[in-house]
Amino acid sequence: MIRNLIQSVMKGYRWLDRRYKAGYNAIFFSCEDMMKLSSTSMDRKLTLRQRVTRKIHLFLCTWCRRYEQQLKFLRCNIQHFKEEFPEQGETSLSPEAHNRILKEIRKS
């Protein structure tokens, strides 16, 4: 009897959790959207709504905060060390390599 009660409570909890997440993602950005937005925010200015929901999401989500810190770290280091590497000329694939890649893409 207690086991059935616990199972029904857990089932209700999982239902409530799914409803909460669906509502949360409808109002705020999902983590997947946040990853795209974090990258975009480094290239251009975000709209007011995007900035506000981004701040709220980052306040609530440890993983997205960590992801954004990693992006900032990478961006800073790339800018710092790019001067040490000379610019490479634009390279092109051989026709054989190009055809081989196209075949592999079409197969999948």
Structure description:
- The chain has helices at residues 2-27, 31-41, 48-60, 62-81, 95-107.
- It is mostly helical.
- α2 (31-41) runs parallel beside α4 (62-81) and α3 packs across α4.
- The radius of gyration is 23 Å and the shape is extended.
Question: Helices and strands in order, then pairings?
Answer:
Layout: H1 2-27, H2 31-41, H3 48-60, H4 62-81, H5 95-107
Helix pairs in contact: 2-4, 3-4
| Alpha-carbon distance between the two ends | 51 Å
Integer count of domains? 1
How large is the share of residues in beta strands? under 5%
Residue share in helix: over 70%
Classification by helices and strands: mainly alpha
* Annotation field: number of helices: 5
List low-pLDDT spans: none
Number of strands: 0
Order of secondary-structure elements: HHHHH
What does the radius of gyration come to?
Answer: 23 Å
| CA-based shape | extended
The biggest sheet, with number of strands, parallel, antiparallel or mixed sense and barrel status, is:
none
- What is the residue-averaged pLDDT? 81
